């Protein structure tokens, strides 16, 4: 615990003595290690410690927020007083009695990353770099990164919530570049989770590096993608980038309440195919977006957002839930003590269906098979999106055909969800750092193999490919 209960009460009472009807303090101590290898040499080995406290006071619809990296009682009482005064509202002093909510899940860390020598972490990065470069002489550049974070938090508010938690995460990434002198292609692989060094019991860093390099070389040799409307099969291993971007952000309650979401006002309505169920769940052990408590002290919980095509719920933090006189769904997240919490996704995915993934491919005569997604853009107001395909193949007579490069997927999230006609029994996760309002938080996303009967694929129009 980063401060005593008596100190926490004094700080919260100081905030309310100056104005507001709700006060909260978020204390954080974060220890990080970051290692990167570029140009065949270790470029950076950085270890750091950052700590501080964020104080929030709410009065009606108004919020004031301040932070300090001085964790002394006197400094934080002073900060709380200033934050409370900023609201210029009537003081509402009251006695605070803390209670500790029960987490719905417990995570076991087998080997803490701070128990692993830095030299061992550096050696892992070097092995991955060498493995990627050995794949093909056309690999011209390899970047390997490793990072870990141990985040201790104490969260207390004037409603009496008091939480202590520790989050431990490790992440490993490889990016390989291949060129033949005319064309340049890249391959990317990553692994990570809410877990310690045991991540590498199930993840082989050298093999991950080779996969990234092989993808870069394969895309170098791939033919240009065809263009036009066609069926698209998205493999489970493609991860849930599309559901995260084209659907997930639109189900965050702050965007819904501001009428910046295509899903605003549609709770209880049909917004997707009967085959589609979308879930957000931070309680899945080991996943990158998992946690026991969110950054407001609410226990993490599984939230069914869309069930059999019907919009059931949105993702709420304390403030958006307060506006609707309901409970938070445990999605209040922030990048650090310097940031106010906002509704964010955690591990968001399309639930597996009943179809055999191989049968989905076999029963698709022609189209595009997407095995890896790249970057993209989405307009949450109307759901329109454009995504790059990092690894794609033509589907010819129900079989995987030649690899293609330069493919893009263009469509509308809600419309795509409505026409999905096959959902596989598999489930493939990907991970990343999701950006919103200038804040980045760790997330996971996933989907099973799905088939979209018709989608606009951008590429180079070539009628011969339709065979």
Write up what this structure looks like.
It contains ten helices and 22 strands. With 467 residues, the chain is of the alpha+beta class. The chain has helices at 5-17, 73-86, 118-133, 199-202, 205-221, 241-248, 253-257, 318-323, 357-362, 413-419, and strands at residues 22-38, 41-59, 62-68, 139-157, 162-179, 184-193, 223-224, 228-234, 278-280, 303-307, 310-311, 332-333, 342-343, 347-350, 366-378, 384-396, 399-405, 408-412, 422-423, 428-436, 439-447, 450-458. The strands form four sheets. Strands 3-2-1-4-5-6 form a six-stranded antiparallel β-sheet. Strands 11-10-9-14-21-20 form a six-stranded mixed β-sheet, covered by helices on one side. A five-stranded mixed β-barrel has the order 8-15-16-18-22. It folds into two domains: 113-153 and 164-221, PmbA/TldD superfamily (PmbA/TldD fold), CATH 3.30.2290.10; 228-466, no CATH class. Helices cover 21% and strands 39% of the residues. The termini are far apart. Residues 112-220 form the Metalloprotease TldD/E central domain. Residues 228-459 form the Metalloprotease TldD/E C-terminal domain. It comes from Moorella mulderi DSM 14980. It holds the Pfam family PmbA_TldD_1st.
List the helices and strands and how they pair.
Elements: H1 5-17, E1 22-38, E2 41-59, E3 62-68, H2 73-86, H3 118-133, E4 139-157, E5 162-179, E6 184-193, H4 199-202, H5 205-221, E7 223-224, E8 228-234, H6 241-248, H7 253-257, E9 278-280, E10 303-307, E11 310-311, H8 318-323, E12 332-333, E13 342-343, E14 347-350, H9 357-362, E15 366-378, E16 384-396, E17 399-405, E18 408-412, H10 413-419, E19 422-423, E20 428-436, E21 439-447, E22 450-458
Parallel strand pairs: 7-17, 8-15, 14-21
Antiparallel strand pairs: 1-2, 1-4, 2-3, 4-5, 5-6, 8-22, 9-10, 9-14, 10-11, 12-13, 15-16, 16-17, 16-18, 18-22, 19-22, 20-21
Helix pairs in contact: 1-2, 3-5
Enzyme class: hydrolase
Domain Metalloprotease TldD/E central: 112-220
EC number: 3.4.-.-
């Amino acid at each position: 615990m980063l401060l005593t209960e008596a100190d926490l009460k004094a700080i919260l009472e100081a905030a309310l003595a100056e104005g507001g009807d709700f006060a909260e303090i978020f204390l954080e101590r974060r220890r990080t290690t970051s290692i990167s290898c570029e140009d065949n040499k270790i470029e950076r080995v950085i270890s750091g410690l950052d700590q501080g406290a964020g104080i929030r006071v709410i009065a009606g619809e108004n919020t004031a927020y301040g932070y300090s990296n001085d964790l002394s009682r006197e400094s934080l009482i002073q900060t709380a007083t200033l934050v409370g005064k900023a609201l210029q509202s009537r003081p509402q002093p009251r006695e605070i009695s803390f209670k500790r909510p029960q987490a719905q899940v417990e995570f076991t860390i087998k080997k803490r990353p701070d128990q692993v020598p830095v030299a061992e972490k550096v050696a892992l990065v070097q092995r991955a770099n060498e493995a990627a470069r050995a794949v093909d002489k056309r690999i011209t550049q390899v970047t390997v990164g490793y990072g870990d974070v141990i985040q201790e938090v104490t969260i207390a508010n004037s409603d009496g919530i008091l939480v202590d938690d520790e989050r431990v995460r490790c992440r490993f990434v490889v990016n390989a570049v291949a060129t033949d002198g005319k064309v340049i292609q890249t391959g990317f692989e990553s692994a990570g989770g809410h877990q310690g060094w045991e991540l590498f019991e199930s993840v082989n860093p050298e093999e991950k590096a080779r996969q990234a390099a092989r993808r870069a070389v394969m895309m170098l040799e791939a033919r240009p993608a065809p263009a036009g409307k066609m069926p698209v099969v998205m493999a489970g291993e493609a991860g849930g980038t599309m559901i995260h971007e084209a659907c997930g952000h639109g189900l965050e309650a702050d965007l819904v309440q501001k009428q910046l979401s295509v899903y605003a006002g549609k709770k209880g309505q049909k917004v997707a195919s009967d085959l589609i169920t979308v879930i957000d769940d931070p309680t899945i052990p080991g996943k990158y977006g998992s946690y026991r408590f969110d950054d407001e002290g609410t226990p993490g919980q599984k939230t069914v957002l869309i069930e059999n095509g019907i919009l059931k719920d949105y993702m709420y933090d304390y403030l958006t839930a307060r506006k609707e006189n309901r409970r938070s769904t445990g999605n209040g997240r922030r990048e650090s003590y310097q940031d106010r919490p906002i509704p964010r996704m955690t591990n968001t995915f399309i639930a597996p269906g009943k179809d055999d993934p191989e049968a989905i491919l076999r029963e698709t005569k022609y189209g595009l098979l997407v095995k890896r997604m790249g970057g993209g853009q989405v307009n949450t107001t109307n759901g329109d999106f454009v995504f790059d395909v990092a690894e794609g193949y033509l589907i010819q007579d129900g079989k995987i055909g030649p690899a293609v490069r330069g493919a893009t997927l263009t469509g509308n999230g809600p419309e795509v969800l409505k026409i999905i006609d096959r959902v596989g029994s598999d489930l493939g996760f990907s991970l990343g750092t999701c950006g919103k309002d200038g804040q980045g938080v760790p997330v996971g996303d996933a989907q099973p193999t799905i088939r979209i009967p018709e989608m606009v694929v951008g590429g180079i129009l070539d009628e011969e490919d339709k065979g």
